[in-house]
Every structure is written in structure tokens, then in C-alpha cells.
């Protein structure tokens, strides 16, 4: 079958999709986006977490056909997603993703032609949560990282000042085997603090 | 993938006069006062692969793709022990999209492999010896096609009697699982189903026992833990025009894989070229081959690239696990609290194939006493062949099982004597100069008592926060967490302590070397170093540390880490807490050789410009040659010009000795590492739910080359120990079948299960080791488990002699 979906703001079309394929398989093997990871393919580890119409989901548990006509954000699109949110697409900074909102959710259009893109050797634009994971030492083997980033970014989108218990609850579906989670907590706290400092700096 | 790690160095720019004399060449120019390069050892520099890992661009082995690529799949045995009476692959072969099906009969060369014993069939050879043993391979154009074709391979099995424990393994009439053993331990074991036996005998136990005022014994059991690395076993084999194969693979030791794969393919080692792909964790589970040989066989058979990626279900069958163990311990002590003797027996279930069982036995035996001074010791450790899943390396490697038992014993003896358990441990703690039960005198710091003091001195987390915190109370911090199963009723607190000892590096006379190739050249007027090793970066941060070492030794800012492959000599395994010590040592050693070459070149070119070239102690710092007084003599770029220095050297730590087969005496280990934990738990005694509130750790790391990474290792290791304490176990049924091969049924700690882990890092240099460092990765995995269980005992008053502790062990239901 053919599946049409929007991934990271770009319309995508996957052909010859077998009905049993997951959204994760289509992203990784058909659309050249292997950033979402295949650690359990049972919906238990969260490594494949993506935003589906804004809602964080395990893409391994979403049948490819269920993604027809819908908007997907993966770790590869997280920096652009965060940048567009900062630019006002989600002006309140606390735009949660309730069901009603999720149903209305639309991906933003891709960057205009000619917009500067990251070049090899140039500093890569990262989402604040991505930078915080690097700075806090939250990355070891890194296999859980893409899913955790998508989940943590979504947490900070709806809760700019999460308590530790909030962070633990939001990330409880994402397994990490290397870090013992302490540095991951540090990273989310760091991203939240930086965002608050930036907001305070703007006098908001 | 090259990762270039650049830390900006800001040189002070004070101009300095240089004395110019007439000389054969031009004088060095543009010198400034020296300043050290940033990003050297001791700093928490950031990972060179961090950006790739957070953007999703880092290429893990399961992410690889090749034009015309096929997918491989492995058919595995549903039986733990059975004879294969027939195999029919015709229906599978007829499946559209299938390119090849292979069984044992299709193997081109060697049919067995193994890390230490060559006892593991590439594909089952008429008998299967464990549930999940590979029987046949399929290559197809879609992974689901391969899976479905494998289901169409018809295999008839005739079940055989099972060997499942010590009684069934060592019975006189037990089925002998490997009747043709020719390994180096075979002549010395009392039964062919015993892989290896290592006694440790020291002092006079009988005489000591007579002097003991109290004698305390106990039986303990450790369940089968899984490494549960998140990146599944995977790799891509690409057939080459020369008849060889290129394998891109996630592993812990490229060269050990190569040594085992090449004979299976019937190829010389230089026709099997291996490159490390991104590795999603390892923890010992990638020491043995999994799909490596299988993917290469299918690629050579079909002439097409073949990728194999296990899913989580298959991963539970695709690698060895931590040995489950039964341990019997007896300690004697005087009334004033001195340990006088230890008798112990440790039985490790090695499963169907040997893997690294023999080395695990050596560790369990030689570390069985723990970090205590005990003069009279009589210990025996053995590993068995059974029809259970094969067991081998996992973080802690034999020391984890022993630590659970001896630490439970320490609490028991202290209680018997009416002593404080921490003071009792401190009274008997080993120190630098203590003789191990192997007779090896520990010749570097062993701050066991101090580590205990430090964890005990840490502030306690507030008690009964659900009452004391008022508004801030959070139900999610209670046992049961998000399940909201208690508001504090039935919840009791406990505190437990433990300390452990782990060896660093490969032991018992193993030639445990590493190799580093270091290149220094000037690129666009900037000196750039390239470090090339075969070290498997599995997440531990070795690549970060290698760049730090190169900056420190060569005084350059820019260091490129070359991809790990077999075009450079072996780095040994990313195991045994050894890589920073051994491959770090190799990088340091090669950098030193490069530095000597630079100084030779500098003396040749500029020696006549400044007397310091001949007289002073010279260093490389800030991109320059400088005197030990900090005076800059020449820029590295000017010394090098268009010449590159490129040196590959092997490096060895001091040798170890095999342990005596009868007494276990010998200089068996390179180095020891120590960690202590204090666990604070709250237990819902009605439901048997344990919430670990805090798990504080103190560890001596000798020298923290990268403090951020060191703390990450300690917290990660601590959490794996927590998992073993209260949740992680592969359950094997009476029929030898694995019951819980999924993350639904095999639970590892989530962020909700994991407490705050404050870490106190001690740095007491080991003068034998590079920079004084001590291997970090494993020690925190040891003491974490017994500390948590001690805390649960403290809370509940239960004896709890088995891990993982399950709710029913607490409720008694």
C-alpha cells in the first residue's frame, strides 16, 4: 500500500508498504530516518518515541497505515520543531497536547527554499533539550536518547517548570540502561532553567 | 564516521621576544607565552559523538543500509535439549523473496567457535543444548519474509533428558553435554559437566575455626540477570570482490570476533575486515559472537549485503547472561569483632556453552572474601554445563554474586556480635598491603574503611516525606509510585550498607595488551592529532578520554578520533573496567613516542636557536614545544611543516599470573577497585513493594580523567545493581525454557524506580596505572545490590537470602 504522511514538516510518500509494517519501520527503512530507535519494538522502552499529531507515541506500536495523512515529528526534526515553537507557533510556552488540541494539530510548513541549512563542519542548530542532554552528560551509548529527547521536549512544552516528580512521571516510559537517569534529570532541569533564564532576560 | 573533537583553547597573546641567532634554518616565529590546552585529562569535556547522538544521525549497527541489502533471520530451538532428527528447508526456500537458507550442513569451514573454549556450534549440529540455540538461517528481501520463511523450515526434534542444576549436572549417570571436550580445563575437572573449578586455600581454617567465638553461615542465591543493553544485536556484512567480507558490527572486541569469525568462513583474517558501528550499550553481553558469523555466511552465500537485527525477544536468546549462582558461606569471628576464617562454596550455572565461565569462576573464587582481611580461607568456586541459557560476561563478572553473599554475611556476623554493621566492616577492612586470599599483596590504595565512612556521613533523605513535606509531599515518591497503592500506611524505612572489590583488567596471566596509532600533522598551520584504536566505544566515553589524553600529551587542541576497525592492532575488550587503563595507556604511550619524535625534529631544525633544546625538560603545550619553565621554543606546526608523524605501538600493563589449580595462589589481578553504597528504602509491607529512596555511593577512582563520565558510570552501574536487587531476573522454567524474554516481563529500572544517586569520588592514585587511574565501570554494580537488600532486611526484619527480592518474598504470600 501507499502511505502519505508529513514528517518533520515535509510531505512524504512511502510505497510498497506491507500492512503489518509499523510507523517506526516506515520511518527507519523507507524514509531514511533511522533516528527513532528499535530497542524493543514492543512499546515498552520508548526509544522510538515520536510526536504523532503532537502526541508522543511509541512509533513501533503505530501501524504504518494509521499514520496516513497525519503529522509526525521525529528526533531529526526536533531542532526545527523547537525553533518554530520558540518563534511563536506555541506562544504560551505551555501548549499542552490534550486530545482536542491533538486533533487540531498541524505541523508547520518546512523552512522556505534558500533558508540556511546546517552544513557539514558548521555548528549544528540543536533544540535546547538536545544541547542540555550533551552538556549534562545525559548521553552515554545514546540509544535511548532520541526517544527521551522527544518525550522531554514535549514535557517542557506543556510544563515549563516541572518538578522532579513531574520529570520522572513524564519520562517513565523511556528506558535507559547506561546512565541511571540522574544526568537525564539534570538535562531536563537544565533545559527548563535555561528557558526560564531566557524568558526572564526578555522581561517577559 | 570521523568525529572531530575540538575544544577552543585561548592562548594568551602577549608577544615575546625570541633570541635570533644565525642558524641553518629560519628561527621559529609567532611565538607567544605558552598556556595549556584546554580539554585535557581531568576535565569534564563533552562527548565527541554527542551531537550526532542527539540529532539521530549517529549510525548504530541497526541503522545501516546498503543497496540491494537482504535481511537475515535466525531459526532457533524451541527445546532446551533435543536431538534433531530431520530438517526440511524446501518450503522455506520456495518462499518468494528468499535468497538462501542455511543449516549446519551448509557450513563451509569450521563449525564451532567460542571465546575461550571452541564449543559453540555456528548452527546446531544434530543436537540443541538450550532454548533458543540457532538452528538455521534465512536471507530474504524483507525482514518479515525472512521470518515467515524461517517458520516454514520443518525441524523434527527428539527431546533429551535435561541437565538443569548441580544435582542433575554432576550425577554419575548425568547426560554429558560435551563428550568431546578438549579445552585446557577438561583434564582437571571431576565431572565432564563441570566447566572449571577453582579452589582458594590459605592459612589454617580448621585451627582458626577453633578460635572463633561465633560462627555464622548462610546460603544465598542470585538470579539470572540480563545485560539488557538497548541497542539490539545487529550488523551488516558486505561481500567483497576479493572473496572476503566487510562487516560493520556492534561488538565489545573487534579482534576477538575476527579470530572466531574467520575460521568459520574459511577465510584468512585479512579477508575479514571489521569496522565498529554505533554500539547501543554492552555490559558484557557483546563479548561473545551473536549474529556476526551468521551475517557473513549469508552474505558470502548470496553474494549480497546481509543485515541482521535482532528484536528484543530474540536478543534475550542472542547473548549470554549473568551466571545465576548458589553460594554457601561460613564466617568465624572473635568476640571483639575480628574475622578469623571463611569457608565458601560458589556454584555458577554456565548454561549450555562455556563462553567466559572459566574466567568468571576465577573471579568469583579470588574475590570471594570481599574487601576484608581474612587470614584463613577455604573456598571453592565452580561453573557447570547445563541446558539452561548460556551465561558469560556481565558487568561485575563473578564478583557480583560473591558480593551479595559476603555482604549479607557481614550483616549477619555483626548482628551476632551485637556490633554496628559499618563499624564491623571497617574493623575488618583490607588496606594497602593486605594479602588477598590468593596471596597477592595489594600494592596500591585500598580505602575500604574510608569509603564506608563517606557514605555513612552523607546526609539522610528526610523520613516519611508524605507526612513531613506538607504541601510538597508527592504520592509518586511512595512505594507503588504512579500506581497510587499507598498513602503511607504499611510503609517502613530501612537503611543498608555494602562495599565491594572488583578486579580491573583481564587476569590470571592473560596477555591483556592494547594498541594505539597516533598521528600528528599540521593542517592549515594547526597541529592536529589523530588517534586510531580498535577500542569498542559502547557508550562508556572512551573516545572522549582518548582525545583528552592526546591533548594532554601532545598539547594540541584538535584531535580526531579515527573509526575503530581491524586495520589497527587489537585494543582488547571493552570489559573488565579496563579500557581507560589499557587502551588509554596505549594512547598515552603512543603519544609519548610521537612527542619524542617531535622533539627530535625540533632539535634538528631549531636546536641551535635556544640552549633549552639541549638542556631543559621539554613538553608539548598549547600547540608549541615549551620548557618545563613554560618558555615556548617553537610552534608544533613549524616543527612538523609538511611532515606527519605516525606511530602505532602495543602497550601492556604489568603481567599477572595464573592461579594455582589446587590452592588458588598467584598474582592474579592487575588492579583492584572499590565502591561502597548506602541504600535507603521504603517498603510497603502489605504489598511487598520496595521504593529505593536514595542510593549513595563512594568510590575510589584513582584519577578521574573525565569526572562527568566517571559519575555517569557510577550512577549507571549502581542502577544495574538496584535492578538485580529488586526486579531483574530471567526466569527459566523446569523444562529449560525462558519464560520472560521481553521488556514487558523482564523489568529493568525506569526513571521512577531509580532514586537520587549522590556520588562521592575519591582519587587516590595507583602508581602502577596511567595517570594513577583506577578502572571505574564495574565496582558500583557490586555493592549496590547487597546494600539495597540490607536496607529491605532492615525495614522488614526478613532474612532475604535471594535476589531479586520479589513482592511475595516480603509479604510471604
Automatic annotation (TrEMBL), chain A:
It comes from the Bacteria. InterPro entries: 2Fe-2S-bd, 2Fe-2S-bd_dom_sf, 2Fe-2S_ferredoxin-like_sf, 2Fe-2S_ferredoxin-type, 2Fe2S_fd_BS, Beta-grasp_dom_sf, Diverse_Oxidoreductases. The keyword Oxidoreductase applies. The keyword Metal-binding applies. Keywords: 2Fe-2S, Iron, Iron-sulfur, Metal-binding, Oxidoreductase. Residues 1-78 form the 2Fe-2S ferredoxin-type domain. Pfam families: Fer2, Fer2_2. SUPFAM superfamilies: 2Fe-2S ferredoxin-like, CO dehydrogenase ISP C-domain like. Gene3D superfamilies: 3.10.20.30, [2Fe-2S]-binding domain. This is (2Fe-2S)-binding protein. It comes from Streptomyces meridianus.
UniProtKB/TrEMBL annotation, chain B:
Residues 1-48 are annotated as: Disordered. GO terms for molecular function: xanthine dehydrogenase activity. InterPro entries: Ald_Oxase/Xan_DH_a/b, Ald_Oxase/Xan_DH_a/b_sf, Ald_Oxase/xanthine_DH-like, AldOxase/xan_DH_MoCoBD1, AldOxase/xan_DH_MoCoBD2, AldOxase/xan_DH_Mopterin-bd_sf, Xanthine_dehydrogenase_dsu. Its EC number is 1.17.1.4. Residues 1-23 have a biased composition (Low complexity). Residues 55-161 form the Aldehyde oxidase/xanthine dehydrogenase a/b hammerhead domain. Pfam families: Ald_Xan_dh_C, MoCoBD_1, MoCoBD_2. It is an enzyme of class 1 (oxidoreductase). Keywords: Oxidoreductase. This is Xanthine dehydrogenase subunit D.
Amino acid at each position: 500500500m501507499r502511505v502519505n504522511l508529513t514528517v518533520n514538516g515535509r510531505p512524504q510518500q512511502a510505497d510498497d508498504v506491507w500492512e503489518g509494517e509499523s510507523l517506526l519501520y516506515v520511518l527507519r527503512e523507507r524514509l531514511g530516518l533511522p533516528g527513532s530507535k528499535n530497542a524493543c519494538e514492543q512499546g515498552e522502552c520508548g526509544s522510538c518515541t515520536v510526536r504523532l499529531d503532537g502526541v508522543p507515541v511509541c512509533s513501533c506500536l503505530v501501524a504504518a497505515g494509521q499514520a496516513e495523512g497525519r503529522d509526525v515529528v521525529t528526533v531529526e526534526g526536533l531542532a526545527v520543531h523547537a525553533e518554530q515553537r520558540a518563534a511563536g507557533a506555541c506562544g504560551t510556552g505551555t501548549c499542552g497536547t490534550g486530545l482536542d488540541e491533538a486533533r487540531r494539530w498541524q505541523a508547520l510548513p518546512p523552512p522556505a527554499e534558500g533558508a540556511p541549512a546546517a552544513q557539514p563542519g558548521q555548528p549544528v542548530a540543536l533544540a535546547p533539550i538536545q544541547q542540555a542532554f550533551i552538556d549534562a552528560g545525559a548521553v552515554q551509548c545514546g540509544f535511548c536518547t532520541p526517544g527521551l529527547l522527544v518525550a522531554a521536549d514535549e514535557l517542557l512544552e506543556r510544563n515549563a517548570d516541572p518538578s522532579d516528580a513531574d520529570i520522572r512521571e513524564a519520562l517513565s516510559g523511556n528506558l535507559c540502561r547506561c546512565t541511571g537517569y540522574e544526568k537525564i534529570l539534570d538535562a531536563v532541569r537544565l533545559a527548563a532553567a535555561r528557558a526560564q533564564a531566557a524568558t526572564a532576560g526578555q522581561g517577559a | 564516521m570521523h568525529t572531530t573533537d575540538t575544544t577552543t583553547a585561548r592562548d594568551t597573546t602577549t608577544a615575546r621576544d625570541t633570541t635570533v641567532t644565525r642558524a641553518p634554518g629560519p628561527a621559529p616565529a609567532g611565538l607567544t607565552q605558552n598556556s595549556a590546552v584546554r580539554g585535557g585529562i581531568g576535565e569534564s569535556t563533552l562527548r565527541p559523538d554527542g551531537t550526532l547522538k542527539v540529532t539521530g544521525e549517529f549510525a548504530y549497527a541497526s541503522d545501516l543500509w546498503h543497496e540491494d541489502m537482504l535481511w537475515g533471520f535466525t531459526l532457533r530451538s524451541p527445546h532446551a535439549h533435543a536431538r534433531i532428527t530431520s530438517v526440511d528447508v524446501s518450503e522455506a526456500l520456495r518462499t518468494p523473496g528468499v535468497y538462501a537458507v542455511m543449516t549446519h550442513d551448509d557450513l563451509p569451514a569450521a563449525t564451532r567457535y567460542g571465546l575461550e573454549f571452541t564449543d559453540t556450534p555456528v548452527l546446531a549440529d544434530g543436537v540443541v543444548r538450550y532454548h533458543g540455540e540457532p538452528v538455521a538461517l534465512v536471507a530474504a528481501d524483507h525482514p518479515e519474509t525472512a521470518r515467515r520463511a524461517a517458520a516454514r523450515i520443518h525441524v523434527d526434534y527428539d527431546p533429551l533428558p535435561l541437565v538443569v542444576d548441580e544435582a542433575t549436572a554432576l550425577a554419575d549417570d548425568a547426560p554429558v553435554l560435551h563428550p568431546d571436550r578438549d579445552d585446557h580445563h577438561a583434564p582437571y575437572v571431576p565431572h565432564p559437566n563441570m566447566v572449571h573449578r577453582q579452589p582458594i586455600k590459605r592459612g589454617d581454617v580448621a585451627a582458626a575455626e577453633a578460635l572463633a567465638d561465633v560462627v555464622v553461615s548462610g546460603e544465598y542465591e542470585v538470579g539470572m540477570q540480563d545485560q539488557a543493553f538497548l541497542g539490539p544485536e545487529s550488523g551488516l556484512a558486505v561481500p567483497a570482490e576479493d572473496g572476503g567480507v566487510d562487516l560493520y558490527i556492534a561488538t565489545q572486541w573487534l579482534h576477538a570476533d575476527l579470530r572466531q569469525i574467520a575460521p568459520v568462513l574459511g577465510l584468512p583474517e585479512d579477508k575479514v575486515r571489521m569496522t565498529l558501528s554505533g554500539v547501543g550499550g554492552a555490559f558484557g553481553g557483546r563479548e561473545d559472537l551473536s549474529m556476526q558469523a551468521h551475517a557473513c555466511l549469508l552474505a558470502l552465500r548470496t553474494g549480497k549485503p546481509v543485515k541482521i537485527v535482532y528484536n528484543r525477544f530474540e536478543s534475550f536468546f542472542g547473548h549470554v547472561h549473568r551466571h545465576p549462582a548458589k553460594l554457601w558461606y561460613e564466617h568465624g569471628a572473635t568476640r571483639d569483632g575480628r574475622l578469623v576464617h571463611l569457608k565458601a562454596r560458589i556454584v555458577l550455572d554456565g548454561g549450555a556453552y562455556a563462553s567466559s565461565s572459566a574466567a568468571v569462576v576465577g573471579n568469583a573464587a579470588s574475590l570471594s572474601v570481599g574487601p576484608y582481611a581474612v587470614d584463613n580461607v577455604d573456598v571453592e568456586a565452580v561453573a557447570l554445563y547445563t541446558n539452561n541459557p548460556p551465561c558469560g560476561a556481565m558487568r561485575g563478572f563473578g564478583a557480583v554474586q560473591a558480593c551479595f553473599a559476603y555482604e549479607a554475611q557481614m550483616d549477619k556476623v555483626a548482628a551476632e556480635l551485637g556490633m554496628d554493621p559499618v563499624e564491623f566492616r571497617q574493623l575488618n577492612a583490607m588496606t594497602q598491603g593486605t594479602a588477598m586470599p590468593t596471596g597477592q599483596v595489594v600494592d596500591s590504595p585500598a580505602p575500604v574503611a574510608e569509603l564506608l565512612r563517606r557514605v555513612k556521613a552523607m546526609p539522610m533523605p528526610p523520613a516519611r516525606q508524605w507526612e513531613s513535606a506538607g504541601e510538597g509531599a508527592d504520592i509518586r515518591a511512595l512505594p507503588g509510585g504512579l500506581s497510587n497503592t499507598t498513602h503511607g500506611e504499611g510503609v517502613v524505612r530501612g537503611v543498608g550498607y555494602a562495599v565491594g572489590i572488583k578486579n580491573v583488567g583481564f587476569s590470571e596471566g592473560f596477555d591483556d595488551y592494547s594498541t594505539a596509532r597516533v598521528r600528528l600533522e599540521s593542517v592549515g598551520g594547526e597541529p592536529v592529532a589523530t588517534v586510531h584504536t580498535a577500542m569498542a566505544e559502547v557508550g562508556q566515553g572512551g573516545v572522549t578520554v582518548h582525545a583528552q589524553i592526546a591533548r594532554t600529551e601532545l598539547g594540541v587542541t584538535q584531535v580526531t578520533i579515527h573509526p575503530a576497525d581491524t586495520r589497527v592492532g587489537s585494543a582488547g575488550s571493552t570489559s573488565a573496567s579496563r579500557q581507560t587503563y589499557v587502551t588509554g595507556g596505549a594512547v598515552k604511550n603512543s603519544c609519548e613516542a610521537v612527542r619524542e619524535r617531535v622533539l627530535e625534529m625540533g632539535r634538528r631544525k631549531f636546536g641551535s636557536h635556544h640552549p633549552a633544546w639541549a638542556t631543559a625538560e621539554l613538553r608539548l603545550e598549547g600547540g608549541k614545544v615549551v620548557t618545563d619553565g613554560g618558555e615556548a621554543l617553537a610552534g608544533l606546526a613549524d616543527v612538523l611543516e609538511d611532515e606527519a608523524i605516525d606511530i602505532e605501538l602495543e602497550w601492556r600493563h604489568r603481567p599477572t599470573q595464573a592461579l594455582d589449580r589446587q590452592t588458588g595462589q598467584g598474582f592474579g589481578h592487575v588492579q583492584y577497585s572499590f565502591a561502597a553504597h548506602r541504600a535507603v528504602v521504603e517498603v510497603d509491607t502489605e504489598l511487598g513493594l520496595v521504593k529505593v529512596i536514595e542510593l549513595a555511593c563512594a568510590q575510589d577512582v584513582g584519577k578521574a580523567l573525565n569526572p562527568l563520565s566517571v559519575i555517569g558510570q557510577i550512577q549507571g552501574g549502581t542502577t544495574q545493581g538496584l535492578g538485580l536487587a529488586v526486579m531483574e531476573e530471567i526466569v527459566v522454567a523446569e523444562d529449560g525454557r525462558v519464560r520472560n524474554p521481553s521488556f514487558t516481563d523482564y523489568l529493568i529500572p525506569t526513571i521512577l524506580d531509580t532514586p537520587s544517586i549522590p556520588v562521592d569520588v575519591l582519587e587516590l592514585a595507583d602508581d602502577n596505572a596511567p595517570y594513577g587511574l583506577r578502572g571505574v565501570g564495574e565496582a558500583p554494580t557490586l555493592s549496590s545490590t547487597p546494600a539495597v537488600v540490607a536496607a529491605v532486611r532492615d525495614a522488614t526484619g526478613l532474612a532475604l537470602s535471594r535476589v531479586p527480592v520479589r513482592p511475595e518474598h516480603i509479604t510471604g504470600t
